[in-house]
């Protein structure tokens, strides 16, 4: 991954351990919001990412590129692939039971991805310091050990729940996420 200094953890960043209430190894992760473009079942043209955590600290997911995700004819749009990276990274950082938002997302595109391809995604955290979490993801074609088509590195920033209340619709998320811990 060609990563900038902004998404590279500083030496004092600590490697995250699984949160005590993290989902058990092998658990599926449901959608955090039914209308989310990345994971929501009720989004008509969304990515419908299906995710699980193998170990409580990383996320594995699948996304099949559909007609609605084209840029060039029958090839995935780069912005849609970046959205898939953002989503799987977002899912992985929420395993730490704190609300985070994307501040910076860097993406490398290595291979074109035709419509109909299933991308096998993986996201993990390289370190956390203060409010900053440094994360990475990759998307492989056709199988978990297939060729890498996309890589991403990201800086996510921890926010308070008031971020969602002030700028969005906290009630809509909370209604579907009643077990989310506000003070983990
Ligand atoms: C009931 C509710 C439950 C909610 C959770 C449910 C569970 C969900 C489960 C699963 C979800 C998975 C799916 C998620 C989807 C993917 C996530 C998205 O796409 S999020 C949308 C896109 N992102 C935004 O809309 C952010 C917009 N930006 C902001 O709001 C602000 O800029 C924010 C919060 C990022 C920072 O603002 P400041 O005022 O709080 O803080 P400042 O001081 O500016 O930054 C803090 C530090 O970070 C650095 N920083 C900020 N932005 C940076 C950047 N772009 N690049 C480098 N550094 C940056 C700054 O330089 C500063 O560093 P120094 O402390 O001084 O060292």
Automatic annotation (TrEMBL):
One GO MF term: hydrolase activity
Annotated region (Disordered), positions in chain: 1-22
Subcellular location: Cell projection, Ruffle membrane; Cytoplasm; Membrane
Membrane topology field: Peripheral membrane protein
Broad EC category: hydrolase
Keyword Membrane assigned: yes
Main location: membrane
Record's keyword annotation contains Ligase: no
Family that this chain belongs to: Belongs to the THEM4/THEM5 thioesterase family.
PANTHER family in the record: ACYL-COENZYME A THIOESTERASE THEM4
Name under which the protein is recorded: Acyl-coenzyme A thioesterase THEM4
Species, as recorded: Nonomuraea spiralis
